[in-house]
Design goal:
The protein is built from seven helices and twelve strands. 31% of the residues lie in helices and 34% in strands.
């Protein structure tokens, strides 16, 4: 289950982050930096961050198995300035990786981010090859590398971008049904009813039939997502 992160998640997320860092960045960050990470500091960082970013967590009952942070662009804003939204971090418990949790979290975040942003960016360590491959499979595009310093060590981060206007991985949600009569399409979704006609009806049928959709404006996808008719796949 995916839900919004709350203050009471702090300890689980702190432990998950430290375990993940120590495995993922074992040969990237300095040993000193990794060894100095501690639960109390990470708990406080998480709690402080709830004020200025959105947090989603993936849970199995009461156990947090993954999380994602995102919101308004804040990192390395001196480059690639046309990217206005950002995914700050996404991590999955080391014992539950490669089970689709990361994919579910990033799709949930994208379906929220599209309401406020046109292009989003995330930063990944250049030498974190598994994560780079994961993002590219989710239709993120490598942009450029920049130097950064972490724990007293100079490293490189790769920026990856996601342009909602160029992505065509949209699908109808499982809650949707529709009927067409006299060139008007009535769409039922989550106890809501909307009517489409003229161009919007044509665009909707293209989406349903998996036809070429280059002419469909991003504003229409945003409308469908807001109405819970469509979602990013």
């Amino acid at each position: 289950m995916i839900r919004e992160g709350i203050k009471n998640d702090a300890e689980q997320i702190a432990k998950l982050k430290i375990r993940n860092y120590q495995k993922t960045y074992n040969n990237i960050f300095s040993n000193q930096f990794l060894n100095e990470m501690n639960i109390e500091d990470e708990k406080q960082k998480y709690i402080n961050g709830l004020k200025n970013r959105k947090v989603l967590v993936y849970c199995d009952e009461d156990n947090v198995l993954g999380y994602i942070y995102y919101g308004k662009r804040k990192n390395h804003k001196e480059v690639l300035k046309h990217y206005d939204g950002e995914i700050y971090a996404i991590y999955v418990d080391v014992d539950f990786q490669k089970k689709g949790i990361g994919k579910k979290l990033i799709i949930a975040a994208l379906n929220d981010l599209i309401n406020d942003y046109n292009k989003i960016i995330l930063w990944c360590m250049k030498d974190n090859f598994d994560s780079l491959q994961f993002y590219e499979k989710r239709n993120f595009t490598k942009l450029e590398n920049i130097a950064t310093e972490i724990g007293g060590k100079e490293l490189f981060e790769t920026g990856l971008g996601f342009d909602f206007s160029k992505s065509k991985n949209y699908k109808l949600t499982r809650y949707v049904s529709f009927k067409e009569k006299n060139q008007v399409i009535a769409v039922y979704s989550n106890f809501d009813l909307i009517f489409l006609k003229n161009e919007t009806a044509i665009w909707f049928k293209k989406l349903v039939n998996n036809e070429i959709t280059e002419d469909i404006p991003i504003s229409f996808y945003k409308y469908l997502i807001k109405k819970e008719v469509a979602e990013i796949a």
